[in-house]
Design goal:
heterotrimer; A mainly alpha (about 575); B mainly alpha (about 100); C mainly alpha (about 200); A: mainly alpha; two-stranded antiparallel sheet; two-stranded antiparallel ribbon; 16 helices; C: mainly alpha; Four Helix Bundle (Hemerythrin (Met), subunit A); about 80% helix
Amino acid sequence: MSFWRKYVFSVDHKVIGIQYAVTGLMFLFFGFCLMMIMRWQLAYPGQPIPFIGSWLGDARAPSGIMLPDFYNQLGAMHGTIMVFLGVVPLAVGGFGNYVLPLQIGAVDMAFPKLNMISYWCLFLGGVIMLGSFFLPGGAAQSGWTSYPPLADIAPSGQTAWLFGMIFLITSSLLGSMNFIVTTIQLRVKGLSFFRLPFFVWAQFVTSFLLLLAFPPLEAAGVLQLMDRLAGTSFFLPTGLVVSGEILQVSGGGSPLLWQHLFWFLAHPEVYVLILPAMGIVAEIIANNTRKPLWGYRSMVYSVIVLGFLSFVVWAHHMFLTGMGTVMSSFFQTTTMIISIPSVILLSCLFISLYGASIRFNTPMLFALAFLPMFGIGGLTGLPLGLSAPDIALHDTYYVIGHFHYLVAPGTIFALFAGIYYWFPKATGRRMSELLGKLHFWPSIIFMNGIFMPMFIQGFAGVSRRLADGGATYDFAGNVTPLNRMMSWSAWGLALAQIPFIINFFMSMRSGVKVGSNPWNATTLEWQAPSPPPHGNFTREMVVVRGPYEYSVPGQKEDFLPQNQKAEA
Amino acid sequence: MSNHAEEMDRHIRTYLLVFGSLIVLTLITVASSQFLHLPIGPHIAVALIIATIKATLVACFFMHLISERKLIMAVLGLTVFFFFVLLLVPAMTALSHETGH
Amino acid sequence: MLELPYIVEPRPDTGLTNGKLGIWLFLASEVMLFGGLFAAYIMLRVGGPTWPVGADILNVPMATFNTVVLITSSITMVMAWAALMRRNYGTYQLYMFATVGLGLVFLTVKYFEYSHKLHDGLYPSTSTFLAIYFTLTGLHMLHVIAGMVVITYFALAGRSMFRKNPQWLTNRVEHTGLFWHFVDLVWIFLFPVLYLM
């Protein structure tokens, strides 16, 4: 096979998975850099940005001092890139592609060519998003939610954002079809649904969310493109005044319509960010507690219910839009109900730890940290789900703190755990434990240093959209000094990633060589050679047992792989 | 193979019958809207009911849903449910605005 | 290339081939795509101060004709599949070309409809009704074009596939047909919603 077919336009799910993962990691890093620049502006508003300020140009930061418009671009693009180009490609595209077919014993994904196309759609979408920074007027600046009418009248970066999103949505749709078909059709003999590893369940439900929730956003994207390019008024009400003049459009549109269609996707999207992370954590916890997961079945039922309910809670993002009390009561009820399966999942993972002799390796540390961090994120969400307290907290830093606890020290920690855990499978070498711990401990401290003060600022009423972090608002005076602590934590977090980067590249070349099953795990991916060849398995797999048969009494080893018969 | 061929013949007769019904229903829906002069509510209801019947015919016979596997039905059931959730929203919004709550 | 299972023969416990399940999932997402647009239609119509009757602005006879054309193309598509089931390649090819031809007729009529509107100064920006009309029919038209491309491909490149593995080609044509019927089905709703109500 030529170089191009083997490494670039490959149809092998493992190569595509690694392409997704590397792309996702690079975008995570890029999105993180955008945030670090924002944090400078928040901590030291109006002061020239050090080091890179002079490169940004007069349109963004004249003599190094950031313009509010550029701050808005950074904010909008940080959100978009982290969600759609960072976490989703890494969690679903990367881990899903690499691990899911191996865990179900398949030779590849059901549609290998489609798999390749979906990666390249993502790549194109990413290029468009990055390129939009160089358009006149800069990148999209109406928030990652792109609410009209603001987004309808924004500069051309918004059009690029919409085109980019259409590619990203197409990529996710094709990918999710592929995952569902692969899971249903390509499971090996004996692997019934209730013998699937929890990670596969999580990816399976995630794929349904992507498949059914993304198209309405695609529809909304098309409508907003029409508004911007064909002069229609889908989201522009009659008599809209822009810069003191009535906008010359036909009118009759509804800005609320966008919000409904956007959040119809974006709430399930929250679970798209979280469920694969839960799947990874469940695998690692079962493996390092050397016990079966506590309540595997209730976890599976919970994840299904969670997926289902995530479609009927979206309007809790819209309590302040004046959509009416009937709607608000309905959606706050469903929101309270959806917390039940989430709590079941988290409780099962916590109870799984009870009585175990835990192996505290790097993947396990990240997985363990996920639990309380996700807990904080989830519990702080409850007041936001009730319409009365949401009136006070809506659009403040409290909201930012809440969802970042879910996705930053929550999901991203789980993704790091997954990288440390499956690295030996992909490369045949283990990552360094020492560097791993040097990565973990500062990361968890700095993460909390960034996000914990946000709750305090939020309670004080600081809006999330202020380009100066509240410096010009008297009421925020008591809490603005926290901005410096948060910013220094963010830069510290950047330094804490250096051991990871070193570890990643060094271990690829000179990590300790390990066999096919270094963690003594039970699921099928560890029965393939490391790294698995094209076609994955060297012998036929037949599954005879559930996914987490650790410490089965009367056995020589403390783990029984899914395809292995028990000793009499 | 004769059994198989007979079955295909039966299928094709069904297709032609469905085709005929679709054409007739199309003409009915146009005629009802042009000549019946119903008030707006019933007018919309008639048009949508006929469209639903036509869509059901296409889905059941041309797309073979009538003899399709349970799994496909489950996926479509789920989709149709969320489709209606999506459609209910604008209706609910309009309702709460009208009643002033 | 690897041999993936259940491409030609269905998996025993699900009774489905990979492609069959895949195309239905794709159609499920299409249902949600048009669902989003129909939701937009309802919200704009209910929320707007006035809403025109489609027949006053749009050309009902042309659209009725187009409805009949699309329904006919559905029957030719299903006949093409039936011919393949009987392993009759010549008839199959004939019906496939007929389907593409009917698609072309649909597009031509649509072209005249659009150019009349634009000629009369009725643009998407003229009113919300015309905006949703152009968006919905335009998106539907893209689906028609996509379907025609795939059908043309299988009509032209089908012979070697037919020689190699007729059942596989039959499956693929069935899946193409499912997409084509779905496009027809969307039009069945678009026609009364835009033109008659």
